[in-house]
Amino acid sequence: MVRKVLLIAFVIFTARVSFPQSPSSTQNEINSEFQIAVSLFDAQQFQEALKIFQWIAKQTENPKTTASILFSAKIFLGEKSFSSAERTLSEFLNLYPGSKYFDEAKLLFAETLSESGREKEAIRFLIENLPERNDKNSLEREKKFIRPLLVEKLSTEEVEDLLRRNAGNELTPLLLTSLIKKNLSIGNSENARTFFDRLLLDFPTSDEVTEAVSLLNNSPSITSAFSPKVILCLLPLTNIHGYENEPAKDILEGIKYAIHEYNSLSGNQFALAIKNTKRDSLQISRIVKDIESHKNYSAVVGPIFSDETQLFLNASEKLSLPVISPTATDDNLQAENKLFYQANTSMELHGKVMAQFIYRVENKRSIAVIFPQIGNASVIAKNFMTEFKSLGGKIVPQSYPARTLSKESIVIDLKKEMKGVEGIFIPINDNVVIPVMLSALVKHGIDLPIYGNQDWFTTKGLETATSLSEKLTFTSDSFIDFQDEDITAFSQKYFEITGKEINSNNLYGYDAAKYLLKILTLSERGLRSFEETISNAEPFEGIHNSIVFEQSKINSSLNIVRYHQGKFELVERFEYKPKGKK
């Protein structure tokens, strides 16, 4: 974003630089004087500090120049010398647009205008000179400054004029929320709802949505029949130390796009309230208390990790609120809450689905299983073996310690039991195992179909064992065919709205949110409970996988993927059916 600076009409620049430079002192001397000035500033000895800051500003430009000018402006403002503060900050903003203090100086300039009785100019200045898109901290500081001024100092007509002039920028949700508040204060509920509908349509995932919902719910001028629908999004966007979680952010982008798409196409409107779980029990407890106090949420999408999902379910036992996790995979989570659903398939089901696919579709009755003794691969293998045997199949098992580097001895032992075996199931925890395992199988003349779990998706070196890799089939909870015309069209629309290329994490969020919106809408239309609606719903054909809750509250669908001529291809989306079901 190109920064532009509003020039106040009466400020006249007579020279390019208003801080005349004198012969340079040494940087050490400047640094020393700067520290003295800061100490004087902290001790509220402002005039003494100002002399030093101005002296530093007059030196040849140095690392302390911009900070000294900014401190000078703060002193002028603190002493109500508004013209000096304004002149200093105007020149700073024009001379140092690349300074790390630019946004701070901009906010200080707005404060100067406001304190000198020119609140409208201050608001216009900030709205027309927004921070960079990725500088959320600066944007939040500006919102905090502008919010009370919009409500207290500007008329409804003046805020509407600002909205017309600046529609679509990052402060538009704040302007809309201010108009909702202003109209409610004078009893104009119809206008308030009009602005709320616009907020939901154009900015359903903005931070202001939650505030707007609260304003409407608590207003006596709004009838009880009007109840804004809000989906609560719980994601670990950062950890407790503030480090960002990129997969969570990607999932959020997919959820936000699903809300945007739904609101654009539907007569119903949903808002999205976003809360950062930080994957922390205390933070999750605070969120649950907020849910209990507000009681205006229709459903929850998230959390995404099994451990934080367990924490949320434990803390929210008394809430009768539908919850759908896009990616949690533990098998025992769904027992904690009858309204909790897992859009991702569990590790146990990865094993069971592959067993049914091999038995019922591949029509094989004897399978060898090579698996590590710990980790997800062990869980998958054990469930595969149990399911395959329950179907009437024969298993030849061969386990190995997870740290075993050589796989040749495993293959040698297995070869002794291979009579009648029609294929080998090899779930893995780490894809570095694959080239070694394939090499050992080729070396000992074992040429059978290979089946695996989704960790095979990320392996390298399949081309080195062509005869075996061409017989590779595995399960995956996500498969995206970017050559598909429908997916290409979707990707283009997604890019137009978000400015980002689509990835698999986006689609975990998108599909879960789109499914949730579908069920909420069907439940409302059919006057049935959320649980009844899901149990009667048709399988949902998502982009990365189908979502099916026919048998339990864990998605029972997985992609069956095959490696063929150097690329991965989707065979089918296979749904697990318990024994006796067809």
What can you tell me about this protein's structure?
The chain is an alpha/beta fold and 582 residues long. It has three domains: 27-226, Alpha Horseshoe (Serine Threonine Protein Phosphatase 5, Tetratricopeptide repeat); 228-345 and 481-549, Response regulator (Rossmann fold), CATH 3.40.50; 347-476, Response regulator (Rossmann fold), CATH 3.40.50. It contains 22 helices and 14 strands. The strands form three sheets. It has a seven-stranded mixed β-sheet with strand order 7-6-8-9-10-13-14, with helices on both faces. Strand 11 (540-541) and strand 12 form a beta hairpin. Helix 1 (27-42) runs antiparallel to helix 2 and helix 9 runs antiparallel to helix 10. The two termini are 57 Å apart. Residues 1-23 have low confidence and may be disordered.
